[in-house]
Amino acid sequence: MKRAHAALAGLAGILALVLGVAADAQVVTGPAPKPPGAFKAEIATASKQKEDTVDKVFKALGPAFAAQLRAGRQVELPGIGTFRVVQVSAYRDMVAGRPATIPARNYVEFIPAGEVTTAANAPGAVPAKTVEGYEFRVNPNANPGIKVEGTRTPGVRIR
């Protein structure tokens, strides 16, 4: 058990070191893509450990991470951020054009550390995906709503 804690603490330190170094590095436009195992190799070099040891720690990290979240604990990785489980309450929504109640559900929330946000917003940082912002656009050809000014129908009562 002590070895698992030591391994997790070592991994957290290594990740903090790598992110700290990455935040200070300047990104050149058009960098050559790194091979798939480059991340593990960088961590192995920075921590002066064998790549097999780093690989074993990464494989042990997932199940240990899930066990901590399952137990209701927050997982804090120094220099990276905090992971925690949050629950979204049940709510009503439309499903296939019909009203439905969506049951409560748990999600994993990530709260990044300042260094991570700074690195992500650094000049030259390349996003993996771009999400278009939502903009509400009024449809001028749509039927007017019930509460539209100037369209009041005169009364039809006769005395």
Number of helices: 4
Report the order of strands and helices.
HHHEEEEEH
How large is the share of residues in beta strands?
Answer: 15-25%
The major sheet is characterized as:
3 strands, antiparallel
Compact overview of the structure:
With 159 residues, the chain is α+β, with helices and mostly antiparallel strands.
Which descriptors would you attach to this protein?
159 residues, alpha+beta, HU Protein, Chain A, two-stranded antiparallel sheet, 4 helices, 5 strands
3D architecture notes:
The chain has 159 residues and is an alpha+beta fold. The protein has a domain at 2-26 and 35-120: HU Protein, Chain A. 38% of the residues lie in helices and 18% in strands. The chain has helices at 2-24, 38-47, 51-70, 114-120, and strands at 75-77, 81-88, 91-95, 98-102, 105-112. The chain has a three-stranded antiparallel sheet. β1 (75-77) and β2 form a beta hairpin. α1 (2-24) crosses α3 (51-70) and α2 crosses α3. Mean pLDDT is 78; it is low at 21-28.
